[in-house]
Every structure is written in C-alpha cells, then in structure tokens.
Design brief:
Blueprint lengths: L4 E2 L16 E6 L2 E3 L5 E7 L12 H7 L9 E7 L2 E7 L1 E4 L2 E5 L17 E8 L4 E3 L4 E4 L3 E6 L2 E3 H5 L4 E7 L10 H13 L3 E6 L2 H4 L5 E7 L9 E6 L7 E8 L18 E5 L15 E3 L2 E2 L8 E2 L5 E3 L2 E8 L2 E3 L5 E9 L1 E2 L2 E2 L3 E2 L13 E4 L6 E6 L5 E5 L14 E4 L1 E4 L7 E3 L5 E4 L4 E5 L2 E3 L5 E6 L10 E6 L7 E5 L1 E2 L5 E5 L11 E9 L26 E5 L3 E5 L11 E7 L8 E6 L4 E10 L2 E5 L6 E8 L13 E5 L1
Parallel strand pairs: 3-11, 13-19, 25-36, 38-45
Antiparallel strand pairs: 1-10, 2-4, 4-8, 5-6, 5-9, 7-8, 9-10, 9-11, 12-14, 14-17, 15-16, 15-18, 16-17, 18-19, 20-23, 21-22, 24-26, 26-29, 26-32, 27-28, 30-31, 30-34, 31-32, 33-36, 34-35, 37-39, 39-43, 40-41, 40-44, 42-43, 44-45, 46-47, 47-50, 48-49, 48-51, 49-50, 51-52
Length: about 650
C-alpha cells in the first residue's frame, strides 16, 4: 500500500519519486476549537527513520531528502482542499507519535460551506521528506457555551437514585440576545451529532472541593425545538455527587475546556445539589409583592413552625427601560445604572408596571446580581441606588479589549437576578449597553490660552470617533485641592479625526501668573479614559511632567514701549515693558498692525517685565502694537496695546 505523498518543499535534484518509509494513521484528539492552540498526537509508524540505513538505496534517499543536514525536522501542513492554510513545526516523540499544535481556523462560516467547514487534511514531512497525508482529517469546531440550565438545583436523593438529569441549551453566538445565523445553528447541530459532547463537572463549594474529584460525563442531544437562540442537550448527573455547588465545562475533544472564573459566584454554568433533608416546595400564586413569613407543618397542617431566620421575597418580574450610560469603556469600572420597573401578567390582562421607587422592594441582604452575557465577563453584584430608581453596578473588564479597534463598539446582553443568582431575567432596554475601546489621542493644539477663555482647542485622535458618541472635554485643576472643573462639548470634523471645543474661563488666584489644567476626553460622559501611548506632549520645560495639560495664563498688561517712532524700513530695536510677559509653551511674539495689515515678529525676554524685538518694515502711518506670549499658531490677541506713529 502506497501512502499519498506531496513532493518536498525544495528538492530540485530528485529524480525518482518514492514514498518515504513512514505512515500517519490517526489523530488524538481529532478535533479542536477554531481558535487554535490544541495539542494533538499523530499516530503512525516509521517516524524514527534516519535515512542512514544500509537497506535504503541511494536513489531512494535522493528522492525524499530535501535537507540532508536538517535531520530532526518535522513539518505539518494544514490544508483545506488544495489550499495551504499553514505550516508548523512538530515534535517527534518516538517512532509512532508526533506532537503538534493547531493553528487558528479563520474560514468564514456560510450556509453554503457549513457541511465542509472546519475539515482540514494534515500532511507530514520528516527531515525534508515528501509530505505524506494523514489518513484522518482534523476537524475544527466553534466552541459552544452553556447559557441556560434547568433545573439549577437537584435533590441528592434523586442523584443517589441515579435519577437526575439537567437540560442545557448551547449556543455559539456572542450572547443569547444575538440571534445565531442559520449557518451557525446548523453547524452547531452538526458538531453535536458528529462529536461526542464531553462535559466536566467541577466542585465549586469549599465543602466538596477538597473531597470531590473532577468527574467526566457525556452529553445527550435532545429533540430539536427549532429555537434560534440555541440547541438543546442534557447530561445525566452522576450518582456519586455530594451536597454542594458544581460547575460545568464542555469540550467536543475532551481536552480544550474553557477556563472558569476564579470567583465561584461568577460561574454561569453551575448547579447545586440539595441535602435530602431540604424541603422543596413550589410557591403559590401571590397577588401582591413583598416579604412573606414561611411556616412548615409536618402533621397535615395542625401545627406550623415559622422560619424565623429569613423571609420569602415575592417580587414581580423586573424589566429595564434604559441603561445609563449606554456605553462603557472596555477596561471596565463604569458606573452603570439600570432603570428598573416591575410587571406581572394576569389572566384578565396586563398589570401596569410599577417603578422601582414606587414599590416596596428592598435588598437588605445584597442579593442583586447583574450578568453580562459573555463567557469571558463575570457576574457582578448590584444594589439599589440612593434615589431608588436604579439598580447600580460596576461594569467588569472586557477581556477582549486587546482585539478591539479604538472606539469600536460591542453590544452586550444583560440579565438581572434579585435572589442571589438563582433566577435571572433578560433585560431589553431601548438601547442595549455596549462596550467601546478608549479613543487613541495624538495631540492637541494649542496647549495654552488666556484665563479669559475663548481659545479654540483642537484635539487630534488616531482613529475616527463614530458619530454615535457625544464627546466632551474636561478641564480639571492640576493642583490637589483645585476645585475648577469645566466640562465642555466638542464638535467633530467630517473625518472624525479632529475634535474642537472652546476653552472655558479659568480662575487664577491673586498673584498667580498661570495655572495648569488637566485635559481629559470622554465619549460617554462618565469615563475619562483614553489611550495616550502615541500622544505627543509639548516639549516646553513648563510642561515637564504635565504633558496632558493645558496652560491658562494671565493676559499680559503692557505699560511702556521704548520707541514711539519707528523707521518704515524696519529693524529698529523695540523694548516693551509690562506684566505677565511669560513664555507659556513657545516664543513670545509681537504683532505690528495698522488695522489693515498685521506683521508678526519673535521677541526675546530680557527679564521678568521686559521683552525685546526688531520692528518689521511697515508703511508710513499710525499703528498699534500687541504682545502674544503663547507661541506660534495662537490667535488670541486680547492684550492691552499702545499706539505710535510709524514714519
């Protein structure tokens, strides 16, 4: 039997085509997630041949040696049909095993490619030999995640009797709020049929974590209900589970299980087993929400024993009208407020919603939980705001931030629970909450202006800001106890790369010549976070260590000019005396104007209250002189001036 071979990658001297003395038969595992990184073993024979055997003829060696000096090289090609996806180095473990790691699979999943998507052939070359095809293809799959479990609590008695099953719903969409495409759903259903669904049950409770081991079970496909949000499956709970909380992980190849959050409270795919002494009852229908006492009778209702330790919280279904802000920075930490109301259905019609502030709802035990519908984002705690209109929480960091483009949006589904995470309700605000990557700042010009305000400040960004955002620039006092904070709106240029605002007025303390204000940009009105890795700060010594600041200065006051009469030919030396003649980020400039024509010249500072310049050539007549102490590119000319005849 002759193996399928490809010629060597570079062998111009080969004259005889022959098969190398090795074969690749099986893979373990034979599938893996499309993100790559799966370590697998190629099983076969003859992987340890060296090419030095006396039984191999010179013609045979010449045919399959491409690099005779590269004696320890093993290469694996990933091919889709006749297209090479990637070539990677592999490790020869022994004569029958080669270890390799998969590369990411990025082929688009379309309805027309659903059946063949993910299947790649592997071609192996040992020490420069022709490539030999492995008999078993490698199959990629989209990693599914569990977004629904029922029930989330099972009785240990049922577990011990081997009579406990948990139904699941799997999806590959970004969140359950994102409808899967027909191709995604079809592919997931196909993967569930073609691969064994391997589940791991991991103990999460401290009481069982030390005494229990990780258990492996296989899942079962349930009859398809056609729902677009996922595909149904189930697992049988092993009978050896003790009382406690357990988390579930799924991997088709029984190897690449997605990691679990370090905090057990943030694990979404989890269930608990109850002590057999626990009494499980189904609550009756309540007409009114509130706190209810619970009493238990074990003698057919003759005597009742009240549960004094806790009250039963009865609530209507929480709904969310809107979230504020609607956008949060991807590094997390955004103070998110959810406008909550409660509603309940009745047989005779819809009961009007009751706003949170009009209800008797309270959360004394801190049981509010807000879930961000992503495998990589944890569930966070929430609480009722002081105004009793919102559930408040702090957004977690989005672990995909490194893959974001600056200012790119990612919508995120939300769920809320008011019983500590037992039951979660989907929230459908008018505008869904979205993460955005922080804007990339390049520079802003000018970097200084008079304390009277009115300077046009231009902020340059590296990536266009979408029109979705209403940008504001905040000027905040650099001093520790400085209370000056001004938040001003900005306008965007047509290409979204330049943001412009007018600097606000700034208060200078008596005797203070200038003040530094920290400049901060926000896209959502809450998070003043930007990417400043490529920011170009002002190089003036005044801005040393304050590269992201704006300099407010007191406008110069001119008191005297040394020469009242100047030559029309220019070059006369002019000494100007006044107060506030400072260099605030650039050279001092002097403007000579007759009302029609204005000429600018640079000036040098003689001492604290004098500057010197050379008058430019000018037409005869009377003009005015103005001093500008903020460098080039600035148009603020609001200083005191003196007049003189220019003859």
């Amino acid at each position: 039997m002759r193996a399928n071979t490809l010629p060597p990658a570079s062998d111009g001297n080969a004259s005889v085509q022959t098969s190398p003395p090795f074969y690749a038969n099986e893979l373990s595992p034979a599938c893996g997630p499309s993100t790559g990184g799966t370590k697998f073993i190629i099983h076969g024979s003859g992987f340890n041949f060296s090419g030095n055997s006396q039984q191999q003829s010179t013609a045979t060696l010449t045919s399959y040696w491409a690099h005779p000096t590269d004696l320890d090289d093993a290469k694996v090609r990933f091919m889709h049909g006749d297209k090479i996806l990637a070539s990677v180095a592999a490790t020869i473990q022994n004569s029958s095993k080669i270890e390799c790691t998969t590369v990411p699979y990025t082929r688009p999943l379309l309805h027309t490619t659903c059946a063949s998507w993910g299947s790649v052939s592997l071609w192996i070359s040992l020490r420069g030999s022709p490539y030999v095809q492995c008999k078993t293809p490698f199959v990629y799959y989209h990693q599914p995640f569990i977004f629904h479990m029922s029930p989330r609590a099972v009785s240990v008695a049922a577990v011990a009797n081997n009579d406990a099953d948990v139904s699941l719903r799997l999806t590959v969409a970004a969140t359950p709020q994102h409808t899967q495409t027909p191709a995604q759903r079809e592919r997931l259903a196909l993967d569930m049929q073609c691969h064994v669904m391997h589940f791991r049950i991991l103990p999460q409770s401290p009481s069982v974590a030390s005494s229990s081991t990780i258990l492996a079970v296989r899942g079962t496909i349930l009859p398809d209900d056609g729902a677009v949000d996922g595909v149904r499956a189930s697992i049988h709970v092993p009978s050896q589970l003790a009382v406690g909380t357990y988390a579930l992980q799924i991997a088709f190849n029984n190897t690449d299980f997605p990691p679990l959050p370090s905090d057990p409270i943030r694990v979404h795919a989890a269930f608990t087993t109850d002590d057999p002494t626990t009494l499980v009852v189904k609550s009756p229908r309540f007409n009114d929400a509130g706190q209810y006492e619970v009493a238990v009778s074990v003698n057919d209702g003759v005597h009742f024993s009240a549960l004094s330790s806790s009250l039963l919280l009865v609530y209507w279904k929480p709904t969310c009208e809107y979230v504020t802000p609607a956008y949060g920075v991807s590094m997390g930490g955004t103070d998110l407020h959810l406008r909550i109301s409660f509603g309940q259905l009745r047989h005779e019609g819809d009961r009007p919603r009751v706003a949170l502030e009009d209800s008797t709802f309270d959360d004394p035990n801190g049981l509010i939980r807000v879930r961000f519908m992503s495998d990589l984002l944890p569930t966070v705690r929430g609480h009722v705001s002081s105004c009793r209109k919102f559930f408040h929480c702090t957004t977690p960091k989005n672990a995909m931030v490194d893959q974001f483009r600056h200012s790119q949006l990612e919508a995120m589904g939300l769920q809320v629970s008011v019983d500590g995470g037992v039951v979660f309700f989907d929230l459908t605000p008018k505008t869904p909450f979205s993460y955005y990557a922080p804007p990339k700042l390049r520079m802003y010009t000018p970097v200084q202006g008079p304390a009277t305000g009115g300077t046009s400040v231009h902020l340059h960004v590296g990536v266009p800001i979408p029109d979705t955002f209403t940008c504001h620039l905040r000027f905040r006092g650099a001093k520790l106890l400085h209370q000056d904070i001004h938040d001003v709106p900005m306008t965007k240029s047509a290409d979204g790369l330049v943001l412009t605002c007018i600097s606000p007025m700034w208060h200078l303390e008596p005797g203070e010549a200038y003040a530094m204000a920290l400049v901060e940009l926000t896209l959502n009105g809450v998070d003043y976070v930007s990417d400043t890795t490529d920011f170009e700060p002002c190089g003036h010594p005044l801005f040393a260590g304050l590269g992201h600041h704006f300099c407010y200065y007191a406008p110069p006051r001119l008191t005297d000019v040394s020469a009242k009469f100047l030559s029309c030919r220019g070059h006369d030396q002019v000494v100007i005396r006044g107060a506030g003649l400072l260099e605030c980020g650039g050279p001092i400039r002097v403007a000579f104007s007759n009302g029609t024509t204005t000429k600018y010249v640079d000036a040098s500072r003689l001492d604290g209250d004098r500057v010197e310049c050379r008058a430019p050539p000018f037409a005869p007549g009377t003009g005015m002189l103005l001093v500008q102490n903020v460098g080039r590119g600035q148009t603020d000319m609001r200083q005191d001036h003196v007049t003189w005849p220019c003859r």
